[in-house]
Amino acid sequence: MLRVTISAKIFLVSILISCPILSMATQLELYMADPEVRIAQKIYCQIKDVAPTDKLQVTLDGKIIFARNSNLRSEEIVLVDYRNQKAGVHSLSVKIIDQNGSTKAAVTKTWTTLHNGIPVVGIDENNAIRVNGELFFPIYVALNESDFNYWIDRGYINTGTKMYYQSDNNYTLTTYKNWLDICSAIGARNIGPVTRWNGLGENIHGKGNDLEQMKAYVSSLKNHPGVLGWQWSDEPNGGGNDNRAQPDEIRSWTDLCHQHDTNHPHFVNLGNAYHYGQDSNFAINLCQEYSYLYGSKYFSGEKKLLADIQGLDYYPIEYATKAPLEASFENMAEAFDRLREYNYDLCPILSWIENCDIHPDDNGDGLADGPPGSAYAWTPAPTPAEMWAEYWIKVIHGVKGFKVHPFFASDGTAQPPRNNETLAKFKRWIDDLKGAVLGADYSSNQIDVKELSGGRIDVMAKEFNGMGYLFTGNLKRQSERARFSVAGLRSGSKIQVYGEDRTITSGNGYFEDSFNPLDVHIYILLAPPGNLRIGQ
């Protein structure tokens, strides 16, 4: 079968809404993320009704950075680099100019940065997070001080967060700074102050948000070496209409962060994650409301991202017993594809990971203890193979960072040590492979995969240091054998299988391999210059 796995853009729908134009005929709109915390980004110029002789011209701070002189396509992609900017007001202008030099359509974006050069924590043109310019794949948990130090020392994580609740009476700006001090002392950074932070007023989403408190935290701590980014509430779009933070409210947190700190991004973790994998009109509409492409009614018709970095909780193992029609590896893949699609793949995507059932079975009746009144079957902790598959299948579908639930219990229902070791192994591998995982896609991001036993193998194709990397995962709990077609691959080529101490010998333009249930393989191909291409 032919499967196209998305590595850079996944767009099924493109809706054009005219920005201010100087001609009724030609339409121009920019699809782009907020520039404040970007190192570089791709700008997608959506164009309609142009003549073959029309020209596209893009200027940044008055300097022409891109020009196409004829035969404009319906979407022109322009790479905009902000690495050498100084603090101050900046302007990006995109124009369509006819053969007589008259402007037929124009869009201008203006913003202010408070830093010189690249942000301390910025986002690059591949939607990868970078810290001081270096690629970074955050893996973080909410832990107390002693456990946090232990997890860092054991190589399980590289980032922290501290969950504060309204009941935490000792929560102050000073105590949060103390936590940042702890992080920075061991070379880690923190995302926070999450979750359901009492600065939001009532412990109900969307009620009593105190932007002045947010401002105090950002203004006071934005230069602290322990800050990775800001996050103010977990799943603020969850719950019913009466207590759900609306898109414009969540966006106001992003605007506040950008106003006072352009060195760190704003994170938001979205609820209703399982709806992203469903096909009902209700589920799709609910998810689209909080997306770039479909949520513009909250912003006077303008398309806006909710935050610089967005994420989803999606637990395909625990919730397989709680929501079997919703939770599976296949639905999980669909959920992350849709999150990226609805946001036009304009920002990094993160995900939460559960190494155990978050609701233990303390009384041994076979049912999870929560939420109250539920009849959910308790789920044993995932096996290392299941955890390994969840990590990599999410990566294959665009996830660029993880938050791991660290649960402990005396009755054995918490995550087992074996899953901690699986996490440590994943961190070692992602550190070694981050140049490929977080880097550029192949110029053609299709790969032809033929599953020989009716299963499903998904692929992410990347290019790094002159080599091709194919990250592959079996989404089925059945064995599979697959054939990968790679144009330009010579017969007899040796393909390294990362971490498995084996190689595969290719046929003419293809190679084959076997997969156990939920198996993951990473292939490294030496790319002859100008010859190797993925797909046709």
Verbal overview:
- With 536 residues, the chain is of the alpha/beta class.
- It folds into three domains: 87 residues, Immunoglobulin-like (Sandwich), CATH 2.60.40.2550; 303 residues, Glycosidases (TIM Barrel), CATH 3.20.20; 87 residues, Golgi alpha-mannosidase II (Immunoglobulin-like), CATH 2.60.40.1180.
- It is 19% helix and 28% strand.
- It has eight helices and 27 strands.
- An eight-stranded parallel sheet has the order 14-13-12-11-18-17-16-15. The chain has a five-stranded antiparallel sheet with strand order 20-21-26-23-24, covered by helices on one side.
- Helix 1 links the parallel strand 11 and strand 12.
- It is globular and about 75 Å long.
- The N terminus and C terminus are likely disordered.
Keywords summarizing the entry:
536 residues; alpha/beta; Immunoglobulin-like; 5-stranded antiparallel beta sheet; 8 helices; globular; disordered N terminus
How are the SSEs placed, and which strands pair?
Blueprint: E1 27-31, E2 40-48, E3 55-60, E4 63-68, E5 75-81, E6 88-97, E7 103-113, E8 121-123, E9 129-131, E10 134-135, E11 139-142, H1 145-153, E12 159-161, H2 173-185, E13 189-192, H3 211-221, E14 227-230, H4 247-260, E15 267-270, H5 281-289, E16 309-313, H6 329-342, E17 349-354, H7 384-396, E18 399-405, H8 417-437, E19 448-451, E20 457-464, E21 467-474, E22 480-487, E23 494-497, E24 502-505, E25 510-515, E26 520-526, E27 533-534
Helix pairs in contact: 3-4, 7-8
